Amino acid sequence: MTPTNKLITIIILGLALFLAANWIEAVISKNEGDFIKLGGLSFHTSIDPGINESKNLSKPIFLYFRSETCYWCIRFEEEALSDKRVIDVLNKNFVLISIDTFKQKNAALNLNVRTTPYMILFNKDGQEISRVPGYLPTDEFLIKLNEILEKTKPNYR
Which of 61, 108, 117, 121 has a CA 20 to 30 Å removed from the CA of 142? Predict the structure, then answer.
């Protein structure tokens, strides 16, 4: 086999592996469904179903922007979103939606989100209540959540 034929064979095999990997990733992402588990919480992965649930349950929305490669997102999910106190407050009081800023660029851009992690809270009528840009340690995040709940509806908790 000549060096040129070897090079062509290697390029073809590499291309085949690349295409196979992309196909497998597409199949897996389609099978993930409409929810993603982050920390100890389950989030909608699309805005519209979350909005519908919010209207049906008369609950505000916790919209969490993240990316799989964001160090501070991973840390926030391992710490705050895995803390029982935070899980209880979020599950009891909010409909949870998570947006991947790489996979869902338009949603992030439409809401002027440029960094991760980033959280926006909306009331049950879809009006923005608050923005929480960046990473917060668990206790600070819990304080912020409780402040937001106090402002929006004193008898929520």
Answer: 108
